[in-house]
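Appendix B, example 12.
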Amino acid sequence: MLLSVIENPTRRRILEALVREPHYPLQLSKELGLSQQGIMKHLRMLEELDLVRSFLEDSDQGGPSRRRYFPTTGFTMVVDIGPGLFNTEVASRPFENRGAEKQERDGRRLLDLRKDLGEIDQELVRLRERRAELIAEKESILEEAGRAVESSPMDYRSRKIVYEYILHPQMSAKDLARGLGLRDDSVENIINMLEEENDAKRT
């Protein structure tokens, strides 16, 4: 669902504007150079997905009330694709309950806030670089595991079970069986065989 939202460049630009401050559809229309009708179509979709909400605001010139839109949820999406690796992770962060944090920062100077943001950005870069190193190491291990599984005499279903078992070291055989829609004992038999082969190679 989130991929379908952010794949659209117009919706990305709308969200980029809304995280700065709430906007009227007319403001978004002028800023993005699109018709109000087109903007409303995207806003309705974002509202249905609970990524934005709106409220009516009285006009300061005595005209009819106008609707302003604001974001409700932040999220981080990570997609890893590589040799033997396909993984997606989404972490969402509701925007509510930030009043105390806002009050604490209200009295600080803008340049101090800019400095703090710079330090956070540097730390995020270090984390991304370390994550990239770990993903490369993970890909290398999965490639090696993939070659070993592929060269084994097992049938396709057994190879898939073994590969998924290696790919998800936190999962038990029962959890794996449930995830693959297989009987517990069929998965456990293959895992037991794998462990026996592993013990034999060690000795």
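Residues 1-71 form a domain with the Arc Repressor Mutant, subunit A fold (CATH 1.10.10.10). The beta strands are 52-57, 66-71, 73-82, 85-94.
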